[in-house]
Amino acid sequence: MNVRRVTSQEKTILFLLLIAMFIFPLIYAFSDWLSFADYTLPIWAGWLGVLILFGALFVFWRAHADLGLNWSPTLEIREKHELITKGIYGVIRHPMYASQWLWVIAQPLLLQNWVAGWLNLLVFVVFYAVRVKAEEQLMIEQFGDEYRAYMKKVGGVIPKL
User: Fold this and answer.
1) Quick one: which of 76, 114, 121, 138 is 20 to 30 A from 131 by CA?
2) What are phi and psi of 158, to 5 degrees?
3) What is the domain-level CATH number for residue 89?
C-alpha cells in the first residue's frame, strides 16, 4: 500500500524553493539584474560558505545513499517501506533537511546578494515549518511506537548530545 501526501501548498512551496535555490542564483551569476542588491563580506566568509556548501552536499549524499529506495521528493510511504535508523539516520532524523539548512546558510555567504543569497533561506523556513510536521505525523502513523522511540533517541536536524 502506497501512501502519498502532496498538498497544493506543498507543491507551491517546492516550486518557490526551486526558484530561490537555483533560478535566482543562476540569474545572479549570469546577469547583472540583481546587482542592486549586492553586498560585500570578507573573503574568509566566502570560503566559509564553500566549506558549509560541501558539508551540505556530503550530508545530502549520505542521506540519499542511506535511504536507498525509500527516498522520495514528496511525503510518501511505499510498499515495503522501512524505517531507516542506521548511518546518518542514526545521528539525525532529518539529514536531508539538515543539508538544506547548511545550503541556505552557505548561499548568502557565497553569493553576497540580498535577493539571490537570502531568498532561499526565507522560502526554506516556510517549507521546513510545513513539511517536517507533516512528515513526522506520517512516520508516526506508519511506524507508531518504533518511530516515537526513534524520535526520543535521535535529534531532528541537530544530533542529540
Assistant:
1) 114
2) -125, 130
3) 1.20.120.1630
